[in-house]
């Protein structure tokens, strides 16, 4: 009998990270042995290349303020693993996670004894734990963030889906999803459910056409940004929102950046769609909830200020699309000096990302490394990288050097891999920084 939290985590992380066969065969068999908890849950699925975490955070707060008990499933975590499964922003307790792992471990052993190819991956195990936990706890709604894909994702199972949100589509995880925007769009759009509404952000034209086609084939009502709904920045920290139900002016947000307003708009569109059906809220009532909930939303590591003097901001821009969004956002900051500390995994488009950052005229780039996870390693620094920035292999030294070089009217920005951001954030919160 498993009674130790660390042993439970060790078991989860001992599972294969990715299985060769991309299908729902393993997760469906594990859920079957659990009694199909997913079939008892009302879910909202969030899929896309970037922005999923922010959309989940905004939507969770909107639903909680409306009086619902909301489960959220996200990845990766920022501080502790338990953050991946939360109810009303409270992470799953250690004892509950340990109990659930003890419950599924013999089921998995039986599956593998029956057929060695049935052994679920790490993410499939976590997904099954999530469905079991939320069903046991009787949440009103579960917001489920997809892992890597859509059609091939472990979360694409037969739960009671109320809505699908597709945030963005860009080149990422190409070794799994395909090397073109079209291939990735087809996989992401695989999460669109028959006769279930779909809310969509700004997509490349090719991806947008694929999403529209699949939505039409599956009779999914489509709500697209800049068509059925839109937003307009008003200040650096407020925007207006418009849809068929009316206009909500002066929506305040503490999360900085135009792309954060876009993520908030997607969450509001999803909420307003649900407010007409599942939630049964009048437009005026939902508008009041929107203003309160968006203002209250926080998402660690997303345009987050962690130090005041000099100002230090963390942003998990972990692929080329996210780096482009960050660079667009930097144009709105009046700070004259921007010192950017950047590190990313080796399996990302590291050179394209650091080149894009170096193209910003006000940016001085500090390139560094961090401790990877399992077989995933930090991108190594090469002599050629010195052309586009200052090379400081030890990340604490890199951050300290950037901060010391930042004047009072400037800003230090730490960006790149979400694991790197998590590591730096924990360091700041522990208080042993300069």
From TrEMBL:
Residues 301-417 form the Mur ligase C-terminal domain. It catalyses: (6S)-5,6,7,8-tetrahydrofolyl-(gamma-L-Glu)(n) + L-glutamate + ATP = (6S)-5,6,7,8-tetrahydrofolyl-(gamma-L-Glu)(n+1) + ADP + phosphate + H(+). The keyword Magnesium applies. It comes from the Bacteria. Residues 46-270 form the Mur ligase central domain. Keywords: ATP-binding, Ligase, Magnesium, Metal-binding, Nucleotide-binding. Pfam families: Mur_ligase_C, Mur_ligase_M. InterPro entries: Folylpolyglutamate_synth (IPR001645), Mur-like_cat_sf (IPR036565), Mur_ligase_C (IPR004101), Mur_ligase_C_dom_sf (IPR036615), Mur_ligase_cen (IPR013221). Its EC number is 6.3.2.17. It is an enzyme of class 6 (ligase). PANTHER family: DIHYDROFOLATE SYNTHETASE-RELATED, FOLYLPOLYGLUTAMATE SYNTHASE-RELATED. Belongs to the folylpolyglutamate synthase family. This is tetrahydrofolate synthase. It comes from Fructilactobacillus ixorae. The lineage of its organism: Bacteria, Bacillati, Bacillota, Bacilli, Lactobacillales.
């Amino acid at each position: 009998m498993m009674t130790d939290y660390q042993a439970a985590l060790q078991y989860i992380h001992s599972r294969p990270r990715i299985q060769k066969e991309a299908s729902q065969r393993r997760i469906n068999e594990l859920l079957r042995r659990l009694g199909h908890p997913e079939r008892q849950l009302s879910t909202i699925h969030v899929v896309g290349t970037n922005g999923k975490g922010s959309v989940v955070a905004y939507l969770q707060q909107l639903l909680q303020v409306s009086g619902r008990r909301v489960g959220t499933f996200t990845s990766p975590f920022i501080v502790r693993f338990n953050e991946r499964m939360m109810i009303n922003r409270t992470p799953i307790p250690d004892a509950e996670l340990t109990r659930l792992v003890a419950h599924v471990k013999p089921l998995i052993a039986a599956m593998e004894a029956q057929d060695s190819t049935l052994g679920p991956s790490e993410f499939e195990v976590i997904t099954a734990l999530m469905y079991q936990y939320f069903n046991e706890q009787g949440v009103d709604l579960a917001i489920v963030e997809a892992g890597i894909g859509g059609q091939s994702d472990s979360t694409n199972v037969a739960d009671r889906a109320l809505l699908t949100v597709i945030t963005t589509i860009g080149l990422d995880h190409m070794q799994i999803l395909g090397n073109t925007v079209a291939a990735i769009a087809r996989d992401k759009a695989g999460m669109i459910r028959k006769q279930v509404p779909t809310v969509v952000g700004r997509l490349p034209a090719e991806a947008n056409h694929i999403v529209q086609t699949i939505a039409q084939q599956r009779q999914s009502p489509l709500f697209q940004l800049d068509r059925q709904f839109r937003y307009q920045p008003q200040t650096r920290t407020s925007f207006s929102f418009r849809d068929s139900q009316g206009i909500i002016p002066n929506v305040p947000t503490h999360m900085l950046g135009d792309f954060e307003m876009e993520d908030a708009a997607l969450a509001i569109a999803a909420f307003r769609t649900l407010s007409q059906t599942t939630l049964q809220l009048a437009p005026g009532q939902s508008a009041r909830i929107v203003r309160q909930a968006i203002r209250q939303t926080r998402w660690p590591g997303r345009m987050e200020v962690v130090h005041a003097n000099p100002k230090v901001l963390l942003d998990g821009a972990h692929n080329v699309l996210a780096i482009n969004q960050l660079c667009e956002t930097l144009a709105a900051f009046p700070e004259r000096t921007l010192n950017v500390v950047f590190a990313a995994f080796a399996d990302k488009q590291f050179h394209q990302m650091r080149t894009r950052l170096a193209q910003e005229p006000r940016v001085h780039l500090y390139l560094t490394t961090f401790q990877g996870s399992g077989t995933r390693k930090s991108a190594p620094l090469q002599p050629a990288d010195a052309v586009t920035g200052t090379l400081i292999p030890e990340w604490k030294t890199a951050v300290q050097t950037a901060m010391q070089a930042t004047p009072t009217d400037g800003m230090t920005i730490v960006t790149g891999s979400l694991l790197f951001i998590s590591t730096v954030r924990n360091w700041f919160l522990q208080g042993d920084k300069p």
